[in-house]
Amino acid sequence: MLSNDNDSSANGTASSIDVVRKKLLGYVGFANLPNQVHRKSVKKGFEFTAMVVGESGLGKSTLVNTLFNTALYPPKENTEPSNETVQTVEIQSITSDIEENGVKLRLTVVDTPGFGDFVNNEESWKPILDDIESRFDAYLEQENRVNRRKMVDNRIHACIYFIMATGHALKPLDIEFMRRLHTRVNLIPVIAKADTLTEEEVVAFKQRILADIQHHKIQIYQAPTYEYDDEETMAENKEIMSKIPFAVVGSDKEVEINGRRVRGRSYPWGLIEVDNEDHCDFVKLRQMLIRTHMEELKEFTNNILYENYRTEKLQAMGIQQDPSVFKEVNPVQKMEEERMAHEQKLSKMEAEMKTVFQAKVQEKEAKLKQSEEELYARHKEMKEALDRQRLELEEKRRRLESGRPMTPEKSKKKGFSFNK
Ligand SMILES: Nc1nc2c(ncn2[C@@H]2O[C@H](COP(=O)(O)OP(=O)(O)OP(=O)(O)O)[C@@H](O)[C@H]2O)c(=O)[nH]1
């Protein structure tokens, strides 16, 4: 917003002209951009696709319902796994539109029933990997279309991997799955039904899991840190990351404690509150997935995981990339190159100027030499004439001194008359 403030300047020169001074009353800077993005995003809504993988009965559906505070998964009538008929891992996806304080989230949860339920689970990871890659393929196909206005992003942004709370170590099934999938999806390992372990057991189990993950060079999701993050955000991120693998407890039922109704699991020995950070890491997992890292997870999926897959896929199809197109320009190197080019140009100009100067000097020297020679010849001529004149005069003087009369002819000629 601008206001006109017609104060005539105290300066004598400007007093005759009406100087209009304008003051900014409102904020117009580009620091407002995030608010624009925010408004647009809220209007458009958000989309997020999470996959849950883990053996049957580890509490996947319960946790998803607890996470998004919605009955995404209807109550199961028969919780017994029916793997007599199912011989492979199935991929089931449920989409739901959730709204909270006017912000819309289109949430898709991809379940993988059957994972780890068979006698031979060696290839349990394969249908899941195929599904993730086919989603990348679908996105790639859309990117190659002429009209890309309506792109549907079905890619998996996070995979919550449920580890059975054995308290010992990762099972070969867990290792194999994570090893096969870590380059294709953001892996977020969680310890399922953590309420079945004591606090000390959880701490020891987490350490063992992380050691196994490191040993097998598995890349689980790591949130990036930014220099511009304030200290509070950095501390929050650090705290969230320190809880991985999250020890979670799920419950979509409320229980009463001291007159308060909380989501939790009630036992004869006490109550486990889902939303109590002293009881489990559920809050931290939800914070990461929904509050702090949803966009980061999507960005990492798009910029790193999908991009790598795309490159591999296109290269496998025989499409070659001219590496010089992406030759990284080092600013220091670029400056040095420019400086050298400039110096070369300068020395070329200097050499040209030198040649021209030398030619001009030579020309001038030749001219000077010529006029010097001319002068010299003239001088010589004049000198000779003078010498001749001097000799004549000397001759005359000698004659005069010896008393010999000058020849009449000569005296007549000069207008003199000698009477001697
Ligand atoms: N102790 C405990 N039990 C839980 C927890 N979460 C879920 N359960 C119970 O575990 C059983 C299985 O839970 P589900 O959420 O159906 O597990 P699931 O992994 O979705 O099972 P499938 O659909 O068969 O793959 C239910 O009886 C839940 O009440 C938990 O955190 N702790």
TrEMBL record:
Residues 411-420 have a biased composition (Basic residues). SUPFAM superfamilies: P-loop containing nucleoside triphosphate hydrolases (SSF52540). The keyword GTP-binding applies. It comes from the Eukaryota. Residues 44-316 form the Septin-type G domain. Residues 379-410 have a biased composition (Basic and acidic residues). This is Septin.
